[in-house]
Amino acid sequence: MPKHKRKTEIQDAFDAIAGFRDLVDETFEKLTGKPIAAWLEEFQQKPRELPPGESAAPSQPGMPLVDAYAILGLKPDAPPGDVKTHYRRLAHVFHSDKGAMNDEAMKLLNRAYERITKKRGK
User: 58: alpha, beta or left, given left = phi > 0 and alpha = psi -120 to 50?
Assistant: First the structure.
């Protein structure tokens, strides 16, 4: 009996993770108009060359606050606890120690979190 209960607990955990993943995907798509997979594909594309005479934007432009919230899958009026919770959950998905293959996504997640916490004065 304990073996069957353990399998059920593991399946429940996997179901919860899958449900959270789906919620993140849906929220991200509602906020940005495109699914995370499409956004990552665009993000990984090689940048186009600038026409002669045009200069590139600063290497680390300030991230708009609304974009920072969208990256975390939140609305701008989200409570501070939600910001931290969403950041940690997404970091768990995108961190290289957890098997993620895209370091750029984690860097973007970090920038978004830093932008929000700086704005809130924490």
Answer: beta
- Angle of CA points 56, 116, 107, to nearest 5°: 55
Question: What predicted TM-score, i.e. pTM, was given to this entire model?
Answer: 0.49
79-83's contacts with Cβ under 8 Å and 24+ in sequence apart are 80/120, 80/122, 83/113, 83/116, 83/117, 83/120
Domain ranges of the chain: 8-37+62-120
CATH number of the 8-37+62-120 domain: 1.10.287
Mean pLDDT per 10-residue section of the chain, whose length is 122 residues: 70 85 84 80 69 57 84 88 90 75 82 88 65
Residues 6+ apart with CB under 8 A from 103: 96
The pLDDT of residue 59 is 46
Contacts of 108 (CB under 8 A, 6+ apart): 43, 71
